[in-house]
Amino acid sequence: MKEQSDAELLRIFVGESDRFDGRNLYEAIVHRAQQRGMSGATVVHGVLGFGAHNRIHAARVLRLSEDLPVIIEIVDTPERIAEFLPELDGMIGEGLVTLEKVRVIRYR
To answer: What is the mean pLDDT of residues 86-107?
Structure first.
């Protein structure tokens, strides 16, 4: 069965080494989203990027992580996303958040 609906995509850009309450920030955000009953979340590691400080972060074969970019994506209703945003205010010290309207197609 195929279901379609309008939704919102919350995309959060942070660094791999960013922390919150003693754990990786991206893990803390995903767990908080799960606790709030959000529809789902995905974390994607970047291999190359730069941000506000204009410093390149890259994955190198012979080095450990250099604070690689991490993107957390959460799709839910606009209302649930709006309710979640204040949670992020207390978690993210430095990063970028984007919102966009999306069309969701669920296959069940």
So the answer is: 95
